[in-house]
Amino acid sequence: MTGVQEGDLASPSVLRVGLEIENIGERVPSSKKRFSWRFVFADSEEVHTVTLEHSRVSSKKRVKLDGKRIGASESYTAGPWTFEFSVPCYPDVPFQVVIKDLPSLGLLERARANLNPDILYSFWAHGKNWEALTDRPTKYESAGFANRWSSMSYCRRVQFTVDSNQQKDVRVSWLFTFGQDGDVHQLLLEDCADGSKILVLDRMSLRHDQPTDSALTLDLVDEINQDGWVAQHAIGDTEHEMMVRVLHDAPSLEAKYVLHINGCPWADMAATDYVLQPGYYPVHSKSAGKVYYRDEVNKVTVWEKPIMPRSTSIVDAPTIPTDSNEEAPAKSVDLDELLVQPMADLMNFSDDGDHQDDGATSGSSGSSSPKDPTTSETTPAVAAVDLLA
Hints:
Layout: E1 14-23, E2 32-41, E3 48-55, E4 61-65, E5 68-73, E6 81-87, E7 90-99, H1 107-115, E8 121-125, E9 128-129, E10 134-135, E11 155-164, E12 170-178, E13 184-191, E14 197-201, E15 204-209, E16 218-219, E17 231-235, E18 238-249, E19 254-261, E20 264-265, E21 274-276, E22 280-285, E23 290-295, E24 300-302, E25 307-309, E26 331-334
Parallel strand pairs: 1-10
Antiparallel strand pairs: 1-2, 2-3, 3-4, 4-5, 6-7, 7-8, 8-9, 11-12, 12-13, 13-14, 14-15, 16-18, 17-18, 18-19, 19-20, 19-26, 21-25, 22-23, 23-24
Region (Disordered): 347-389
Protein name: WW domain-containing protein
């Protein structure tokens, strides 16, 4: 097809960000597929994600756009399955997700599909398939940053937990990593009953809001004025943008906690095949510029992330939102139904200072960061910082 169709000139181009393919079947991983197509419009920085989940056994299908379900099919239908949709900000740009019907394929194409079932799935935008779309320009290279949209830097979720204390203060914890082999990071949000909020990344304070009427609803992104609070933090060589929304319904005492990283909703991220060993949490070392991992109970500090297979771990965290949720990764929390648990201080630890090298791990300085292999100096740890005092 050649030429420009009517309406194309008024519609922006669709640029590829990346494609991720996962086998997510419980017993037989390859029995269920998940495709995540990430793209942007040429005149926008916002990343959109279309997710297709397809059970090759039951033929059930789920399609999500930016975490919200927009389509579903519960049974097998003969012939190719096609789902058409559009993104609300550009309703005139047509999109399609297509699943070819294996029995209706020719002999040669069927043989190829048996060897590689992924070729049965395709994504179309403006009449172009995924492979024909232009890649998003790596504009961050000119600023000295790595390509934040690389498949190796996609954010992956490790664990999500919510707990509270007797004062109805709620703590939300997101553990995540970038790529398969990156460091594990922890974003902690302390949502206090008096309306104050504390946001901490790897035991570094990002924000502390005092109890005010405006603090009762903390919305980091003002979609109308675009002047709301956006928490940005440079992790490694790349700036990854974290956006959190906290929505409170005072009459029902329910809260929603929503996290987006680089425009991707939490529930739409792929999960790692591992979790941290019980008791460990990441701490940012200011002198080394990276995280180490601390087990406060056993007074153990290590540089290499202490992991264990997810399949053999017992995770007490709330489950990831199911398909029935309208917005992912919104997590509805009934404060009265949460287990009453003691809550440790977010910043109850000792870390190296701005002008110090990391101290060696020992019984007398067990809460300091481990010794940096690149330095031989040893200095005492700085006293603990209590944000909640």
